[in-house]
Amino acid sequence: HLRGPGDSWVLPSHSFERTLPWHDDDDTWLLSAATMAMQDRVLLMPAVADRHAFLWNKHVLKSTDFEIVFTVSGSLPHRSTQQDGSLAFWLSLDDCTKQFDEKVLMEKVLRDRNNDWRVGMKELGYSENGYRSDFKGVAVVFLPFDQDRKLRQTITALYSDGSKSIPTPLEDVLKDARSTVVTGNWLMSENTASTQARWKVHADGSIVVSKRQTGTAHLPGAVWSWAPDGHVVKGTFVLQPDNTLSWKDHPNSGRWNLLPGGKLNITLFEANFVLRIEGNRAVQELPDFPVRAIAYLGGKEVEDEPWHKLASFPAKTLPVPVPNMFYGFTGYSGTKAGMEVNLNYLGAFNHDPHVVGEDGFSIAQSQEWKKALAEEARFIDRVSQREAVERYDIQVRHVSRSCLT
């Protein structure tokens, strides 16, 4: 699935759905501390006090025009407990993983009287926020409290050229003059299943950071249009308040429930689908068919749930041409009680037509890449798409005598 939004394409080594690839051989992702790849998500940090998150992509991102989108979910401790955890996303001009030696780190942690992970990180030259003090790039920090230490979820973004350290502890970033601070939920609340965040880096060196939430209050009673090939709507279904599902005019045609991380689980005529909610549409994740079905809330013509801008950085914030970039996550669950944070989806998309984005060679000079693009174009043309839809329909009819289309 190489195509991304608009004229972009997915950077596979920088992206994943649900969780990290089972065949990853540690050449792509660096996980440490409490971060673990689970079956259905990447657990950045558990709901246990004094746990750290550390996840970095080892591959250089070589593009002057790209975007990164990720979905997080989780939970905060009870409001009566102290909340001092944090999550940070780093878009860096430097490769953090080159200086990271987990064996040396653990030796230093085990020698510490309190087995403090931060002590080992400090000995390796990292600050307690999980990154080096001379960080160069964009940092976005997610916190459970505001500038007055009141329990209001807050997001702050800043750009650092490396001349001034990122404040430690990370909560002090709220007072930094370079920071843009926005108050708003980013972890699960009563009506929020997950939050999507997006970074758009443009060729002029400007950066825009946005977010949108996947709500749950509108799901019961909602009417969805079903497009098996992602384009042509073949019918509608309704998510009933009692968790049954009605297909067209047929009540009790299936069931539905919400999964962690903004996932919608539906069973329709005994065929089961897991859909990833993205604004006003839900994209099929499972089964992993060649062509993904898409459910549109109300219909394809309904305006998608908007992105809300958190911060924008002007042209030439990043050097021009935009240099090679790396990205990763760090975090701390909290001192007294831990907040759980899951990474449910991560997508990197290249908009620069002159480079592939992951290895940086010129498309104009690469016959192999031209051939790959031609194969991708052939796959998504009308003929091949029709073939894929036919295969899809055969699979659906195999599990049900009732036709979804």
Automatic annotation (TrEMBL):
InterPro entries: ConA-like_dom_sf. SUPFAM superfamilies: Concanavalin A-like lectins/glucanases. This is Uncharacterized protein. It comes from Symbiodinium pilosum. The lineage of its organism: Eukaryota, Sar, Alveolata, Dinophyceae, Suessiales.
